[in-house]
Amino acid sequence: MVELMNIQEETRWFYEQRAAVVIKNLARQNINAQFVPGRAEALSVIMAMIPPGAVVARGDSLSCDQVGVLQALRDRRQNSILDPFETDSEGYFSADPAARHKMQKEAFLADIFITGTNAVTLDGKLVNIDGRGNRVAAMIFGPDKVIVVVGGNKIVKDENEALLRVRQYAAPLNAKRHALKHHQEGFKDLPCVRTGTCVDCSHGYRICHYTVIISGAMDWQKGRLNVVIIGETLGI
């Protein structure tokens, strides 16, 4: 019997068609990229990209958590891990703010940095907005290799659509996630958390301070940025 209400196969096909365009345009800008059908295949590909002994740091990324990268690394026990976003069973961050800040700075000296992206455009640009800048900074400079985990749902037409997606969807939802899941009280009063809409605020806990558009890499940096596009809806 055909599962008429399950469009997983169709969704994967749609993401793969769009990913093919993205991959071609990223390659022109010295950024490696590949498509995998699901999170299980993505985990296998990502783990193969991380050699034993490498120091691995991570940026905040729900997509990475959904794929299970950090847990797989912990289970493998072959890598040192810098994870400022490790949580206990109740969602509280395991490290105190000072220790988390220290790990975020140490990420620049890591061998590999793993993170997600807020959006990737069809013409081959990674678009991200950060509150503190630690994630986007490490994507740009520091670690010898950067692995970007992205669901096909984050492929957009261009920069304008990417920025609209971040401000009107990803940022409010992410701020709400930190308020609810990680018990970060300061986020609860953000206008976007209270209303679901970005008003370009100046709130002290604003998470939209640093906007970075990565449109390529130098020739001698070829292979540093590695994008894994997954044929599933992942992340925020």
What distinguishing features does this structure have?
alpha/beta, Rossmann fold, four-stranded mixed sheet, 236 residues, six-stranded parallel sheet, 8 helices
Describe the structure.
The protein has 236 residues and is α/β, with parallel strands linked by helices. It has a single domain (8-230), classed as 3-Layer(aba) Sandwich (Rossmann fold). Helices cover 38% and strands 19% of the residues. It is built from eight helices and ten strands. It has helices at residues 8-28, 39-48, 62-67, 69-76, 97-106, 134-140, 159-181, 191-195, and strands spanning 32-36, 55-58, 80-82, 112-116, 119-121, 126-130, 145-151, 155-156, 210-214, 225-230. The strands form two sheets. Strands 1-10-7-4-2-3 form a six-stranded parallel β-sheet, sandwiched between helices. The chain has a four-stranded mixed β-sheet with strand order 8-5-6-9, with helices on both faces.
Offer a concise description of the structure.
The protein has helices at residues 8-28, 39-48, 62-67, 69-76, 97-106, 134-140, 159-181, 191-195; strands at residues 32-36, 55-58, 80-82, 112-116, 119-121, 126-130, 145-151, 155-156, 210-214, 225-230. The protein has 236 residues and is α/β, with parallel strands linked by helices. It starts with 7 loop residues before the first helix and ends in a 6-residue tail after the last strand.
